[in-house]
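Same chain as my last thread, 107 residues:
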Amino acid sequence: ENQLVIARQLSEAATYVRSLLPVTIDGELRSQWRFIPSAQLGGDSFGYHWLNPETLAIYLLDVTGHGVGAALLSVRVAAAAPPRPTRISRAGVCSSRSIVTSSPDLA
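reply #2:
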């Protein structure tokens, strides 16, 4: 019975992590993606959002390991990203270093 509870909790956690992935962009700039994790729950994630009307931040996270610990760290890092404006404008370029150093939680 304990194994069934743990399996159900891992499944719920995996569903939650997948719910954090970004929606596709369809407009002047378009995005398409497919997320296929190698395990039920792990530290892989990605996202994108506009930093301002001309700069799109794109990030890919690959935390070492699998399971709950890696997933928690991945979610924490993704949550430290700047807020996500909803206005979509023309695309810009931003370095990964500037994304990390612009977040007070990660600097």
